[in-house]
Automatic annotation (TrEMBL):
EC number: 2.7.11.1
Biased composition range(s): Pro residues: 310-327
Top class in the EC scheme: transferase
Organism: Streptomyces asoensis
Lineage of origin: Bacteria, Bacillati, Actinomycetota, Actinomycetes, Kitasatosporales
Protein name: non-specific serine/threonine protein kinase
Positions annotated to bind ATP: 52
Domain Protein kinase: start-end pairs: 23-301
Stretch list, region Disordered: 290-327
Protein origin, superkingdom: Bacteria
Keywords from the UniProt entry: ATP-binding, Kinase, Nucleotide-binding, Serine/threonine-protein kinase, Transferase
InterPro entries linked: Kinase-like_dom_sf, Prot_kinase_dom, Protein_kinase_ATP_BS, Ser/Thr_kinase_AS
One Pfam match: Pkinase
């Protein structure tokens, strides 16, 4: 890249038409705190990709670079229908980049901003796909650590039974990688703190259960229209993750079945030991009817402290939302 033009100069058009590594930049898709994502053309393989260029500050940080390379490799090795395939992760002219599958659609952040709370059945379908991606990553020894709506890409699904296909992205680009490298000043690179687990905040070792917490925060927001904790500043928000009880979901959105409160109370427990052991276990408990939906292989869910599931119509029938009817 020639001097004077960086991906972060604030003028997205500057890079359009330019070539970076083996890619020609076509348009800017979006930007987060530490990267800009472009739609680009892979000149070698003649295909469209998403090209993520990381802030140059990150490339200058050795610890971050090593971790980026390592985790990108691990993520690239996981072949999973709900994880965005990474084609290449490398460095050129001092810029770290990742080339990955271009997902034609929206991310969950935009979807929630546009549509507000989702129909429960939609939220659970999305949750199930993200959960399967996370559990697969965990089985490969990789903890995501930055589960948030912006990292959930939603594409059109295959048919009316699968109206959306969801991809999880951004392994290895986590707040943890940043704090390890000293980029801790909240707000500088670290994005949202709405989904961060208590043990991440206190710097304890994390495992897959920190992603259970993050996923639960995301699904809570999908259903309630707001994340579990809303505070005026970052310090108060971090304190709340560590100490406050999340408001029951049914308070934020009356009409949701009360059993969901217990499910979220468990998934959002402060101590990882008290949470569901896997993301799949969390989502299984969210489902309204035994054997329904995606989890027909699961036995009926045991709901501690709530009446047994009766063979009734789905408990979240909601006329406000478009049901997956004919057409
Ligand atoms: N593989 C991809 N295909 C299509 N769009 C993508 C892809 N990866 C990221 N994006 C878009 O680029 C935006 C910016 O990504 P990112 O820099 O990771 O910021 P954040 O995750 O904070 O939103 C995302 O919100 C998403 O809409
Ligand atoms: Mg992202």
């Amino acid at each position: 890249m020639t001097h004077g033009t960086t991906p972060f100069s604030g003028r997205p058009s500057e890079l359009v038409g330019r070539r970076i590594a083996g890619y020609r930049i076509e348009s800017e898709i979006g930007r987060g705190g530490m990267a800009v994502v472009y739609r680009a053309h892979d000149l070698r393989l003649d295909r469209t990709v998403a090209l993520k260029l990381l802030a140059p500050e990150l490339a200058r940080n050795d610890v971050f670079r090593k971790r980026f390379t390592h985790e990108s490799r691990v993520a690239a090795a996981i072949d999973h229908p709900h994880i965005v395939p990474v084609f290449e992760a490398d460095e050129t002219d001092g810029v770290l980049y990742i080339a990955m599958r271009y997902v034609d659609g929206s991310d969950l952040r935009h979807l929630l901003d546009r549509e507000g709370p989702l129909p429960p059945a939609t939220a659970v379908r999305i949750a199930a796909q993200v959960a399967s991606a996370l559990d697969a990553a965990h089985e490969n020894g990789l903890v995501h650590r930055d589960v948030k709506p912006g990292n959930v890409l939603v594409a059109r699904g295959t048919d009316s039974d699968h109206p959306e296909h969801v991809y999880l992205t951004d392994f290895g680009l986590t707040k943890k990688s940043l704090s390890l490298t000293g980029f801790t000043s909240v707000g500088q690179f670290v994005g949202t703190l709405d989904y961060v687990a208590p043990e991440q905040i206190s710097g304890q070792p994390v495992d897959g259960r920190c992603d259970v917490y993050g996923l639960a925060c995301v699904v809570y927001e999908c259903l309630a229209g707001r994340p579990p904790f809303l505070r005026d500043d970052d310090v108060a928000l971090l304190w709340a993750h560590q100490n406050a009880d999340p408001p029951p979901l049914t308070e934020a959105r009356p009409g949701l079945p009360p059993y969901m409160d217990a499910v979220f109370a468990r998934a959002l427990a402060k101590s990882p030991e008290e949470r569901h052991p896997t993301c799949g276990a969390f989502v299984a408990e969210l489902r309204p009817t035994p054997g329904g939906g995606l989890g027909s292989a699961h036995p009926p869910t045991e709901l501690a402290g709530t009446p047994a599931l009766a063979p009734q119509p789905p408990r979240w029938a909601e006329p406000v939302f478009h049901p997956p009817g004919p057409g």
